[in-house]
Amino acid sequence: MRSFERFVLAIVVTLISVTLYVMATHAATRRVPRVFDSAYMAQVVRVVDGDTIVANVEVWPRVLIKTSVRLAGVDTPESSRRFAKCDEERVLGVKAKQYVRDLIKPGDPIIVVNPKLGKYAGRVVADIKYQQFFANYADLAELLKTAGFARPYDGGKKSDWCSKGGPR
Q1: Is residue 126 within 8 Å of residue 38, measured between CB atoms?
Q2: Residue 122 located in a structural domain
Q3: Dist CA 76 CA 50 (whole Å)
Q4: What is the number of structural domains in the chain?
Q5: Phi/psi of residue 147, each to 5°?
Q6: Residue 131 belongs to what domain range?
Q7: What pLDDT score does 18 carry?
Q8: Residue 162, in any domain of the structure
Q9: In a domain, 138, yes or no
Q10: What is the domain-level CATH number for residue 69?
Q11: Is residue 12 part of a domain?
């Protein structure tokens, strides 16, 4: 009888542990922290460059919209030969893009905060938060600035990332 009681106790403890784990995981990936005014859960599709990602944004329960999201308030160097003004900018842009790719991967949950319609059709400008630890959300723009891959940007003229001229 004693071994049967231990078996039942082990089953009960396992079921409780699994239930708590599923609840915590679900809460971490589905619930938007209440500290944000206007926020939407999203899932990363791909990183376009240092300051733009494509994400599936949940605008209503189980209603997703795939859109480009540009980070609000920052500018990163261009990673494309088409848009970079010099090789130095393109190299920095590739590094910035890889930095973001190392932080957030396709399929990762993110939070799109305070989205606004961007200057270009179909693109949203917003803050992006991602889950760094269990309940700790990091601001992607702040991390990029701290790492030296982003500069403040207010929507006007962008600063020059090339060392040979222009404002830095």
Answers
A1: no
A2: yes
A3: 6
A4: 1
A5: -80, -5
A6: 36-152
A7: 67
A8: no
A9: yes
A10: 2.40.50.90
A11: no
For residues 31 and 64, what is the distance between their CA atoms, to the nearest angstrom? Answer: 15
Residue 167 has pLDDT above 50, yes or no: no
Q: Compute the radius of gyration of the chain from its Cα atoms.
A: 21
Q: Is-contact 111 137, C-beta < 8 A?
A: yes
C-alpha to C-alpha distance for 111 and 119, rounded to whole angstroms: 21
User: Is pLDDT of 155 > 80?
Assistant: no
pLDDT at 165: 44
pLDDT tens readout for residues 28-65? 445 554 445 688 999 999 999 999 999 999 988 888 89
Three-class SS string for the chain?
Answer: CHHHHHHHHHHHHHHHHHHHHHHHHHHHHHCCCCCCCCEEEEEEEEEEECCEEEEEEEEECCEEEEEEEEECCEECCCCCCCCCCCHHHHHHHHHHHHHHHHHCCCCCEEEEEEEEECCCCCEEEEEEEEECCCCCEEEHHHHHHHCCCCEECCCCCCCCCCCCCCCC
* pTM score over 0.90: no
What would the pLDDT profile of 102-111 be if each residue is shown by its tens digit? 999 999 999 9
